[in-house]
Amino acid sequence: MALLLDNARRQVRAVAQWLNLALETSGETQARILYQPLETALIRVAVDLRIFNALSGGQKGSKSLDELASVTKADPALLGTLICVSTSTLTVRS
Predict the structure, then answer these.
(1) Are 39 and 82 in contact (CB under 8 A)?
(2) Is the pLDDT of residue 92 over 80?
(3) Which superkingdom does the taxonomy of this entry point to (predicted)?
(4) Which residue among 52, 53, 85, 86 is buried most deeply as judged by most CB within 10 Å?
C-alpha cells in the first residue's frame, strides 16, 4: 500500500512539474534559469553551515536568528541575509 501511495505521489509531482513548465511564461523561464545558480550557491552554503539540520532538528516550530547563529556558529547578519534570500527563492519557508 505504501509503495502504491509513493508511486501515486511521484506521478502527481511529475504532472504538476509538467503543468508548471507548460504554464510558465518566457519571462518566468528566464528568471528561473537566472536564479538557479543563486539557489544552488545558497543551498551549498546552508549545507556547509548545517542550517537545514538546525532548522529541522530538536525543538518543533520556528527558530530565531539568534538561536540559528548559536547552533551554526555563523554571523547573525550573514544568516539573516541567507534566510531572507532563501525565502524569496522558496528554498526555505519563513
Answers:
(1) no
(2) no
(3) Eukaryota
(4) 86
CB 13 within 8 A of CB 20: no
Confirm whether 11 is domain-assigned: yes
Give which of 68, 72, 29 is closest to 49, Cα–Cα. 72
For the record, the C-alpha cell of 38 comes out as 543563486
d(CA 81, CA 67): 15
- Taking the C-alpha atoms of residue 29 and residue 16, their distance in angstroms, rounded to an integer, is 16
| Within a domain: 12 | yes
Residue 64 covered by a domain: yes
Give the CATH number, domain containing residue 13. 1.10.10
Q: What is the value of pTM for the model shown?
A: 0.67
The cell numbers describing 13, all together, are 509531482
Structural domain containing residue 7: 2-88
User: Looking at the domain assignment, is residue 51 inside a domain?
Assistant: yes
* DSSP classification of residue 49: T
